[in-house]
Amino acid sequence: MSEHKIQRALISVYDKTGVVDFARALHSEFGIEILSTGGTAKLLRESGLPVKLVEDVTGFPELLDGRVKTLHPRIHAGLLADRDNPEHVRQLAAQGIAPIDMVVVNLYPFEKTVSDPSCTFEQAIEMIDIGGPCLLRAAAKNHQHVLVVSDPQQYTHVRLMLRGSAEALARLRRQLAVAAFAVTRAYDARVHDYLEGQAPRPQSQPSPPPATPLPPHWVWSLEQQASLRYGENPHQSAGLYREESMRRGLTSVPGKLATQPASYNNYVDADAAFELCRELTHELGAGDRGLGTGRQPPAPSPRPPTVCVFIKHTNPCGVGLAADPIEAYRRAYLGDPHAAMGGILACNFEITPEFAAVVMDTFERWGKPAGAGGFFVEVWVAPHFHKDALRVIETAKPWGERVRLLVDKDIISNASEDGLDCRRIKGGLLVQTRDRVGLAEDQWNWVSSRRPTEPEMADLRLAWLIGKHTKSNAITICKDGMLLGNGAGQMSRVMSCRVATWLARENGHADKLPGAVAASDAFFPFPDGPEILMDAGVTAIVQPGGSKRDGEVLAACNHRDVAMIFTDIRHFKH
Q: I need a labelling partner for 176 at 20 to 30 A (CA). Which of 67, 136, 394, 533 fits?
């Protein structure tokens, strides 16, 4: 490739930050001729810069209210010609077309436009940039001869590199081409996601919903938000990336700086805490419910209570529900004080100074009798932290300065993401729709001789939702709005039953086990699991059903007057 001097630049930008100074440097320092369009040309001319209008090059005015400006052979041939190909050079000369050596373009703010709740579909369509992406793609394709600048943040670096060596400029051309294609790819993904979201949807869906066809092609547009200390382990690099089409997410509290940023594992656990707290908030306040099989339904469920959740290694280790936030927190902490120490706390209410003081004083209030040996929280998630609560947290010793605070108002709403979940495997990704089936209580069937009491039903709902958010195999034991023991991630379901009952006793809940309830995320293959639970005092069990030995399992429960519900829905979490 021979090196050609940059003689002509086409500048057409929506975001005009820094463009006047950049164009002035191109003209005065490097003698580059400037072509431009519309508002950009007007701004540059008003700033005293000589500008040649694109319409003077093409011989056509801007058409269709500006929809067509640069889509013309005299522009794109000037961009796409291979200057090392004599035939390309001959054809340009024959048509009187001068090459274009630099493109400076940024795109219409489509994402910002559609993020406005008042944006209409027609307004969104007008913000789909056509000419800009075409210019960027053409310049990036021919980057050996055309320098493509797609972001105002690149201006300073480009000016410096234009003063450097040909070799350095050649490397810059490739880097800027890659950046330009990243811009167009992300832009197309945003438009795709918006239009897909506008497609007509059925007014109602059965629960669980029917299988949703997965897209034949999936472009995931991500933007790095932060570089993390390391990944799951110190020898792994990690970063936080956001979906550019998503306008919400767990966000650090402004002005609250922990001594170290949140880690990869912190974010994984914080997301698990957020999802469980959000689902408990929404599902336990969903209104009237009734069991299947035509039997008399229990009383309507009350409004969602105050919820506090502790997560350790993505699994719930403490969950408390109560009318009073401090009581909900006490139940969550005492569920498993050993696991709560150094865990992730999520709350579904604004953190007040009074509540913050209670949390910071946890060990002195409840820790010593429980024998936890100390207490601190790695990450605290809530919809909002009162400014006075921040002062309480930051000044508390010894761990207030290092706790990471994350906020997301969606924790108290039903605003959930319906997108896709993925997991990397060798050679690609496994992709699935998200598990957005909550209680789906209209499909629950009371199958035992004894129906659950209303208090048992309340705890069965809680246990079922906690079990959904627990690594399989999952057995969850609850009573009186509190998680007593959670058997998570075991290789056999009977072992999960042993772990759940052992944890309940180990953490001082032996007296609460009589009359407790249990949930299983999948069916019991044998009666041995329920026998362990019933021996511990469990009096009601909720599970999907579907085992060949359901009859044996049910007979064992009926023999001991234990209520059982089949949900017909499984919640494996691998």
A: 67
